[in-house]
Amino acid sequence: MFRYLASLLLVSLVTLFCCTNSTQAKYASSSSAQQQLKKHYQEISHPTPNYSRDKVNDVQGIVLHHTAEPTIERSLGVLTSKKKGVGTHVVIDTDGTRYIMCQPEVVTFHAGRSRLAGRENCNEFTVGIEFQGNTLEQPLTHDQILSAIDYMLPLIKKYHIPISNIVTHEMVREAYKRAHPDVRCYGKVDITQAEYKRVMSALRRRL
Ligand SMILES: [Zn+2]
After folding, report:
1. Distance 66 CA to ligand 1 centre (A)
2. Rounded distance from Cα 10 to ligand 1 centre (Å)
3. Which residue range is the domain that position 121 belongs to?
């Protein structure tokens, strides 16, 4: 009788252990599936020395650019060169990795002569996003667009940025030129309208 009870207890314990294990396994596999669905991109700090020491960015818009450099190393080099004196808030590589050059509240020098919603000098009130590559030659990668949206969404919410204030470098430069037809102001297409439309339609799906 004792032996019977002992073996019954053993069977119950084994069953309990197996069930617990299989439940844990099921849980683990479903959470890893969720992680695959929601991909997060790596952020690497890569500070630029080119920023304003006395002004604070009052974040009301976002300006999209492409670096027009052949490699990420070259882009990071240009955007941290004291001689060139230009900067940005983030550079997004083709695999979606984000190189953070300064915080959104910092004023850095990405927009030059520019105008947005009737206000000039966009460096003082916009965040600059640089995409690695040249959209005149190659479209943005899917990872670049998804990574840009992951970066932009918290900013849009925190600062109540109107969607109409998310624009390209070319758009803010052209607006400046229209207001100052006498001033010479050159610049590249940056980013193309076709790629801008891709970013904006992907963004609207996430809002
Ligand atoms: Zn630009």
Report:
1. 6
2. 71
3. 43-206
The pTM for the full model equals: 0.82
Q: How far is the CA of 16 from the centre of ligand 1 (A)?
A: 62
User: Which residue type sits at 8?
Assistant: L
Hey, which bits of 37-138 come out as E strands?
43-45, 51-56, 61-66, 90-92, 98-100, 106-108, 115-116, 119-120, 126-131
Are residues 6 and 57 both part of a single domain?
no
70 and 56 in a common domain: yes
pLDDT digit string, tens, across residues 126-144:
999 999 999 999 999 999 9
Determine the distance separating the centroid of ligand 1 and the alpha carbon of 29, expressed in angstroms: 43
Instruction: Let me know whether 57 and 153 are in one domain.
Output: yes
What's the alpha-carbon Rg for the chain, to the nearest Å? 25
State the angle between helix axes of 142-159 and 193-206 in degrees (0 to 180), rounded to the nearest 10.
60
